[in-house]
Amino acid sequence: MDDVAAAQLGVVPGPYRDFPMPVVIEEHTRAWLATPAQERAVPEPRPSATVMLLRDGSAGVEVFVLRRASSMAFAPGMVAFPGGGVDPRDADPDVPWAGPSPAQWAERLGTPESVARELVIAAAREVFEECGVLLAGPSAGQVVADLTDPSWEVERQRLLARETSFGELLTGLGLVLRSDLLAARAHWRTPVCEPRRYDTRFFAARLPEGQRAAHLTTEADRVHWAVPTELLAAQRQGTEILLPPTQVMVEELAEVADLDTWLASGPARVQVVQPWPVEHDGALWMRCPLVQED
């Protein structure tokens, strides 16, 4: 491999871990690798945020997951967490805010303050848009507990239609974003061989008491609360497909003994992981550097 190709792929010294490459992305990955390094298209990754919504279940921690619709251009048919790309509306500096400040989030996320604000707002907005969970309350010590009134769905639809921003929604309802309900857990960047790339921060949040997560997004054909060990077993059996970031997060959740302790024990600063494709044993794999937590 020449220096140009290595730089494109983001190859780093070990330690690393290899993951089988999902069949749905194997064909275009082989085509990309067959292209001379100087001619390869490397799309700029789009900033995005995803949220592992969690609760205590009878068998331990449960995580809310969705299976992306087969019609989706990115990761079709794969298990994912609620989330999506940062929207221009997320840059609003006047969003009512409680909890760690954007400056404190910038330190945790390793970004400028303005980018950190956008990522936290995007995380809260996406989880409300996709599953109807609102990480906000009337004060820094309260959270909305009942979203069953039809007026909440009206507000959600206005947000989806871009008739209002998340900040305007909160201001109009006299609420503040509870950034303290989110915990930063990881930072993954889509490999350069993918035609659609995302620079994604993974957040975690406990489902607020009294709220319910629902199937509200057209991007998924199924949603459910999953026990991490059962989800990993389904992947081994071939009935579910997880991309490496999702698998690593679910594996971590499978080891959680106490949810509140885990939420409070995240890394001081998340480090980026960018896999790259490799071939061995006649198959393609995604090679992921192992992160050493601060």
UniProtKB/TrEMBL annotation:
Required co-factors: Mn(2+); Mg(2+)
Coiled-coil intervals: none
Keywords assigned by UniProt, alphabetized? Hydrolase, Magnesium, Manganese, Metal-binding
Domain of life, per lineage: Bacteria
Residue ranges annotated for the Nudix hydrolase domain, each copy included: 44-249
A single MF term (Gene Ontology): metal ion binding
**SUPFAM superfamilies named among the record's database cross-references:** Nudix (SSF55811)
**What's the protein name?**
Nudix hydrolase domain-containing protein
Which organism is this protein's natural source? Answer: Ornithinimicrobium humiphilum
